[in-house]
Amino acid sequence: MKQIFNPFRKILLFFFLLLISFCSLPNPSNSMKLFVPLTSIVSSPTISVSVNRSTLANGGSFDMGSLNLGSTGTEISFTISNSGGSDLILSSSPVISNTGTNSSSFTLNQTSLPSSISAGHTDIFSVSLTPKSVGALSTTLTISSNDSTNPNFTINLTGTGLDQPSMSLTYNGTSLANGASLNFGSILKSQTSSSATITISNSGSMDLIITGGVSAITTSGTGSNDFIVNTLSTSATIVSGGTTTFTVSFSPTTTSTYSVTLSIPNNDETKNPFTLILTGTGVTPDINIKGNGTTIANGGTYDFGSVYNGGSSSDITFTIENTGTGSLTLTSSTLGGTNPTNFTITGNFTTPIAAGSSSSITIKFSPNSITTFNATLTVQNSDITNGNYVINLTGTGTTAPSISLLQSTTSISSGGIFYLGNYVALTAQVITFTIKNTGGTVLTISSMSGSTTEFSFSTLNTTVAASNGTTTFDITFTPQSMGVRTGSITIVSDDPNTPSFTVTLKGTGLEDATATCGVAGPSGDRMLVMTDPATLFDGNLSGVSGADSKCAVDANVTIYSGTTFKALIGATTRNKTTNWVLLANTRYFNAAGNCIFRTDNSGVPSFNFHESVYSTSSINVHTGFNSDFSASTNTCSDWTSNSTSSTGNFGKSNETDSTSMSNSSPPGLLKCDKTRAIYCAQQ
Known about the structure:
The protein has 683 residues and is mainly beta. It is 8% helix and 42% strand. It folds into 6 domains: 7-43; 47-162, Immunoglobulin-like, CATH 2.60.40.10; 167-283, Immunoglobulins (Immunoglobulin-like), CATH 2.60.40; 289-397, Immunoglobulin-like; 403-510, Immunoglobulin-like; 513-683, Mannose-Binding Protein A, Chain A. It is built from 6 helices and 48 strands. Strands 42, 43, 44, 45, 46, 47 and 48 form a 7-stranded mixed β-sheet that branches. The longest helix is centred in the first third of the chain and has 17 residues, at 7-23. It is elongated and about 165 Å long. It starts with 6 loop residues before the first helix and ends with a strand. 34% of the residues are buried.
């Protein structure tokens, strides 16, 4: 710290010298000579050095004390003072030189020293001792300045390097401070951790001695006996620069948290005893197994139920839970017992399973005969109380489920077509269907798809009992427009022969014909369509029955699958009074959904029709009718002749008057070799 001297001392000095000057004034010329040296005396700088408030003489000594070899002591501050009347110039660079036998043991800090110190001011430098050798140490500090009296101010520094051990510990290359912690983590109760090898090092200059020998390395505290210290290979004396090792392992006997003190007594005065805090936790796993979400006790049973012979159950998930505090190790999971080959494991349990975690596999049952099957699932693990966890597996082989679909008493085949009927567009009609299981195992339905706005399905039970068990569901048909509407339904089940049961659904949307054809009759509404104009027939239809057969297989008719159509044709065997095909008091609609006519109480319509049968184009149609629907004599020999000498009445498909059924001119068109279509009436 800089010091400013009292200005009154300067004033007193000045007047003292002035008084002496006046006392020697025999003549004026001498007085002038006296004042010249006075000026020189006042302006001269004066150096002094002090430490701990004690002034050091030039060439004086200061003892820095005794320190262990390699240790660094506290910095000692030295003060340079200028008690003169002018600036003290520190002329060397660096300002202070450090020379001597042991100069490297004395560290000089002069970074803040200026090159000059004003009169009456001070500045500071510091020195610290770091012994590099054992024994007496010395060096000389020299301060060069413009002090004419002490141009080279020297200070002799001394110190002593002491010889002693220095103990340190490391684990896996990491330094462990005195009092540090070493954590062994979580270890299963009654099991032993891997050994931790701890290295003792001596960086001191003399032997490090474990006081009392290696047996003095001990543990203390609750549970200290659960930490095993092995000093069989440990040396009690470690030379300078040497090392030795010992090991510690953790074998908890309780499920609790441990904190134990390890002590190493030694002759390193700064680290005696050297201690470590050993920590760890004793844990234990606890196995629990669930089958399909339900806990199964060790020795318990899981029943796969009835599965058809040759089939397989669904995959059942078996989950191992670790409800304990320690990691659960699984050694194996195996199938055994009487019928292990009928049970299949998919996947593997992961191991180890952390506390609070789980791992899963799936098992399925596949019977190959109609009998009961038994097996065991054994899981070997590290749970002390349930090291062999056994679950008994059982299941029964039965005949396979078999799905069938009915509407009322009508059986519907998969891949077939079911015609729901003819209904006014935008009106809903509910039709009930039955699913029957004719197999010996419960039928499980996994899905039913295809529902739309026009064909919507109700829900159904997903299981159907074995041996003719049934369940029902509804299809609501709501045609959104006129004409034939098409949809489908697909039922997916575990029937091995028909796993996907699909039926095409059809129905016809009709116009609201109340104003033109009256309300629907007691028999409902029927369709009257014409056979495909791309497939025309000559007059030899193989009779009336042949004409019926052609209606049954025609493309324009088969879209109404599930219903019967017959040919609307006149013959001696089919007329208004014999084998007539039109129902009484019934509305008949064309394929577009428009009402053509309504029959009377005898089943005979009258002209004019409200709509033609086929309005797309004018197609000639075999009819054999007169204009009053009586049978004509022109019927190609009751539709068995295609001779040019035979004739048959025909109609025009796009007409609504009598020519739609009876068109007798021109005569050349009546010839039976001419090809024509057929009208087909829904029964």
